[in-house]
Structure formats: structure tokens, C-alpha cells
């Protein structure tokens, strides 16, 4: 009996060893095209143009179609078209001889034309593919997305790495947004009235085709309807409680032709909803702490009276930024990108059931108050201007 058990144990050990040392479903990277960026555009024949920047895995010195020089010699741009995204992806094999490998992909970039038609059907294939990382960035560009793949990196070795660093550090200015595939699909899955994605362009002031994050793109459901400039984008981030840092500038008290720069250190927001006599009302309350980072005037801003003026001016600037996005969302786009409907459904679930079907008509009629509480806790090492 004991001998029989030993034989069974021996077979189990040998079986487990065989399983853990074998990779029956392995995929050799030498036979795959490692993707770092994806661009999607409308094709010339009303089909889909699929473009990728892929890492070179050979010693070839040819630049390839759309390839770039310098540090980007390690990668190449390739494009194909198809009736669907998946069709275009497989058609690319006819040019590359390799299937695509997505785990190292940094971003999915939509061209203006295809984004206006709707991004949800386009994203379907990437959500179904287990290789696509859910934290992949999703962006929009005003022109052709394929043009963004031509960008040259400035401080990093690859443009994909450069873009990743820019989006990870978006909070330094809070003038753009950083939305990944998971967040995008969450918003679309819950029938959100709108999505806001980062707007990316080629810097017109840089002849080397450098990347530039310039504000944000606004979607009604999944269709692109417009854009926000950098300050409107920060107004949106104020309303979402996503401002991390940044610089607020305004005229120096007593010297209107000189500027003061305040650095945002901490901020939070609260949205409250109310219904009175059938009128919807929302109140956005912002609490912000900042420090005096720079002054171009000779006014003694350490004076308590001047500090109060600084706080007042800072509140006015923040309120103006938030008001700009509220007005644009209500009057121009009629799209609740601010999340008012979500807040209303939490506090007044029964009333929300009665108006949610007509929310696109009710949202622009809502009254919105903005309250900003400002605190300046530091004016730096120099107490008085030199």
C-alpha cells in the first residue's frame, strides 16, 4: 500500500514538473510586431485606416514607410485599411508578415473625422483583446491621427515614451486631461451623456514635429462635438475635483500692468444639488490652497491687506474658469460632461427617474452657483520685493 502511494506521488511530481516547465501557448516575440502607438482615421473609401508605430526587431537600415530618423530609427510606421478595425489589423500582416503585439502599446489616437462618427464601435476590438492594457491612453487630434505617429521625441528615446510621460504628469499644469481605455469605457458603459478626452497635436512652433497636449476634446455620448482650450479644460478639472497643481496668473494689486503667479498646492471640490419649485440648482464649491510663486511688481504682498486682495483675485480667476466650462456645456454643447445628472440621481433618485429621459433638455436650464474658498499659506523666502 505504501509503495502504491509512493508511485502515485512520483507521477504527480513528474506531471507538475512537466506542466510548469512547458509553455505550450507561448508566443515568440521574434515573430510579432511590437506596437507602441495606434492611430485610427477615416479611409479614402469610407473604410477604416489603421496605423501603428512598431518597434524594429531587425538590423535593417531602411527607414520604412513613414519611418523617421534619429532616435526613432528603432521603430517604423505602417498603415492598412479595412471594412472594420479588425479587418484592417489583419490586412497589415500582408505588409509586415507579423501579427501585432499590444502589451507595450502606449496610446490609441483618434483622428478628427472618425471621432465625429463615434469611437465606441472602434474601441470594441481593443476591449475584447486580452493583450491590450486597460490603462492604455485614449486621445483625439484635430487632424489625421496618423500624422501624430510622425512626431519626434524631445527628451525621451521614443515618442511613445514621451507621450506617456506627458500624460502621467498632466497635473503639473492641469490644462489637459489624461483618460485611459478603462475610464473611457466606464463612462460609455454607464450611458454617460458625454466623455472628455485629451486633445493632442503637433506643436506648430516646433519644426521637429514635437507633440503638444492642447486642451481637451468633448464628446456627446461617443461622438466628438467640440474642443476646450487649456483654461476651459482646467475649469472642467476644477468641476471634477481633478486639479492637482498648476499656475494661476492675474494682475498684481496696485500695479495692473504687472503679473502675479500663484502655485496651486491643494484643491478639492463638492457638488450639491437641489430642487425648489421645479427649478434645478447645482452648487460647485471649490477649496484651494496656494502659494505665491512669483511677482513682477514691487508691491508688498506680505501685507495682510494685500494678501486679502490676492485671495479675492485668485477666487475670481478660478470662478471664471469654471463658469466658462459650465456655460459651454449648457449653452453650446447641451451635454452634461460635468456629472450633474449623477449627483442629482444620488440625492433625488425618484425625481431623477422622471427627468432622466429628458436630461439633455433639462440640463441647460439648471441654475449653477460657483463658490470658491481660497487660502494662501506661503509667500516664499522673500518677504518683501527687492
Task: Write up this protein.
This protein is 33% helix and 31% strand. It starts with a helix and ends in an 8-residue tail after the last strand. Mean pLDDT is 88; it is low at 59-71. The strands form two sheets. Strands 1, 2, 3, 4, 5, 6, 7, 8 and 9 form a nine-stranded mixed β-sheet that branches. The protein has a four-stranded mixed β-sheet with strand order 10-11-12-13, sandwiched between helices. With 386 residues, the chain is an alpha/beta fold. The protein has two domains: 29-228, no CATH class; 237-378, GMP Synthetase, Chain A, domain 3 (2-Layer Sandwich). Helix 9 (230-240) crosses helix 10. The chain contains 13 helices and 13 strands. It is a lipid-anchor.
Keywords for this structure?
386 residues, alpha/beta, GMP Synthetase, Chain A, domain 3, 2 domains, nine-stranded mixed sheet, four-stranded mixed sheet, 13 helices, 13 strands, 33% helix, 31% strand
* SSE topology string: HEEEHHEEHHEHHHEEEHEEEHHHHE
Which structural class matches the secondary elements? alpha/beta
**Major sheet size, sense and barrel closure:** 9 strands, mixed
Q: What is the number of strand segments? A: 13
- pLDDT < 50 stretches: 59-71
Q: Determine the mean pLDDT.
A: 88
Question: How far apart, in Å, are the first and last alpha carbons?
Answer: 95 Å
Say what oligomer this is.
Answer: single chain
Can you give the helix content as a percent range?
A: 25-40%
Radius of gyration: 26 Å
How would you describe the shape? globular
User: What fraction of residues sit in β-strands?
Assistant: 25-35%
Amino acid at each position: 500500500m505504501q509503495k502504491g502511494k509512493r508511485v502515485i506521488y512520483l507521477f504527480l511530481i513528474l506531471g507538475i514538473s512537466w506542466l510548469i516547465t512547458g509553455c505550450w501557448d507561448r508566443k515568440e516575440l521574434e515573430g510579432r510586431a511590437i506596437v507602441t502607438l495606434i492611430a485610427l482615421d477615416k479611409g479614402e473609401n469610407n473604410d477604416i485606416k489603421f496605423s501603428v508605430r512598431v518597434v524594429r526587431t531587425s538590423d535593417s537600415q531602411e527607414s520604412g514607410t513613414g519611418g523617421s530618423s534619429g532616435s526613432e530609427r528603432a521603430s517604423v510606421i505602417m498603415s492598412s485599411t479595412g471594412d472594420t478595425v479588425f479587418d484592417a489589423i489583419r490586412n497589415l500582416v500582408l505588409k509586415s508578415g507579423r501579427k501585432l503585439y499590444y502589451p507595450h502599446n502606449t496610446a490609441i489616437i483618434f483622428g478628427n473625422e472618425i471621432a465625429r462618427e463615434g469611437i465606441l464601435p472602434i474601441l470594441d476590438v481593443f476591449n475584447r483583446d486580452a493583450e491590450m492594457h486597460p490603462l492604455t491612453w485614449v486621445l483625439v487630434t484635430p487632424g489625421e491621427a496618423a500624422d501624430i505617429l510622425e512626431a519626434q521625441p524631445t527628451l525621451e528615446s521614443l515618442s511613445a515614451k514621451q507621450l506617456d510621460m506627458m500624460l502621467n504628469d498632466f497635473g503639473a499644469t492641469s490644462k489637459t486631461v489624461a483618460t485611459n481605455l478603462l475610464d473611457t469605457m466606464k463612462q460609455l458603459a454607464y450611458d454617460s451623456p458625454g466623455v472628455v478626452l485629451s486633445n493632442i497635436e503637433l506643436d506648430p512652433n516646433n519644426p521637429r514635429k514635437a507633440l503638444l497636449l492642447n486642451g481637451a476634446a468633448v464628446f456627446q455620448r461617443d461622438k466628438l462635438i467640440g474642443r476646450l482650450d487649456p483654461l476651459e479644460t482646467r475649469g472642467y478639472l476644477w468641476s471634477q475635483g481633478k486639479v492637482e497643481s498648476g499656475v494661476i496668473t492675474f494682475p498684481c494689486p496696485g500695479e495692473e500692468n504687472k503679473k502675479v503667479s500663484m502655485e496651486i498646492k491643494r484643491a478639492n471640490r463638492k457638488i450639491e444639488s437641489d430642487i425648489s419649485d421645479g427649478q434645478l440648482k447645482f452648487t460647485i464649491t471649490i477649496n484651494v490652497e496656494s502659494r505665491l510663486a512669483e511677482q513682477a511688481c514691487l508691491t508688498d504682498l506680505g501685507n495682510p491687506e494685500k494678501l486679502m486682495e490676492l485671495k479675492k483675485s485668485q477666487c475670481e480667476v478660478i470662478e471664471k474658469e469654471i463658469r466658462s466650462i459650465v456655460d459651454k456645456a449648457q449653452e453650446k454643447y447641451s451635454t452634461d460632461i460635468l456629472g450633474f445628472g449623477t449627483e442629482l440621481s444620488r440625492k433625488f433618485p425618484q425625481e431623477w427617474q422622471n427627468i432622466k429621459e429628458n436630461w439633455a433638455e433639462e440640463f441647460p436650464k439648471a441654475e449653477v452657483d460657483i463658490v470658491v474658498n481660497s487660502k494662501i499659506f506661503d509667500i516664499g523666502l522673500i518677504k518683501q520685493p527687492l
